[in-house]
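quick one
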Amino acid sequence: MKIFGKVIIFTGSKGGCGQSFVANCVANYCAIKTNYNILMIDMNAGSKDSRAIYNISKEELMSIADIYSQKKKPSISEIKKIIVNFNNSLSYIFPPLKHQEQFFTYTFLKYLFNLFKGIFDLVIIDCDLFVDFNIKKGSIYDLSDELIIVSLADKVSVSNLNSMIDYFSKGKENLNIKVLINKYNIKPSIPLFNLNSLIRYPISQFLPYDRDIENLYLTKGPASIFKYNLKLINDLSQVAESLIMTIFNDYNN
Ligand SMILES: Nc1ncnc2c1ncn2[C@@H]1O[C@H](COP(=O)(O)OP(=O)(O)OP(=O)(O)O)[C@@H](O)[C@H]1O
Ligand SMILES: [Mg+2]
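structure w/ magnesium ion:
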């Protein structure tokens, strides 16, 4: 049987670059605009971002680390316990509230993601590079169909971004990469006309910072922002639409 679900990983070139913001917004857009089943996985242990935007403060809510075992595959009922469904086509897996090192084996993650791909049309993962350093015998990025790197436009971020691009294009030639430049309109930022020559990869999208949208996102949640006809919203919609197209094309081929 062909498995259609796609795994898309969002990562970033520096803390605070907006990788979680973009990932959560894109997941919500896809759930609102299509009938596809979407799963959003927040792999950032100890960060309260995704929990805060959904008011999920329950400490006892299980995360991937709780069902992890090196010896035994988790059962379907165990897996169901970590998935929170929001009464529509959007589901979430939240991280543990307290920071803890998360060690997984590649085989475990492969098993889990393949299972998700059989249930969900799109699995979006918010995952920092350092999460990958704790994965034994493989890399989480080898399990993704597409990697979206979010970066700010300042000097340090761009330098980190180039190192990441080198890292991924040497070891993982088959990985489909997209680069998004976020908050290009706030300082310190390299002028746009210089960015294209400084970044060693084509830029897919430039997303502006929008303070009203940030407030809305933080107070009313990511689904609330798509009512507004603003540049940031149109740009985020385009990022999401391109993912929807890849699922659509797969089903129709
Ligand atoms: N384009 C944007 N417009 C408005 N607000 C944004 C934009 N991008 C990010 N933000 C806001 O900036 C803040 C930092 O973004 P976010 O938490 O997504 O960054 P991150 O890269 O995931 O950081 P961390 O390293 O903490 O995980 C958040 O409050 C988010 O809502
Ligand atoms: Mg984050």
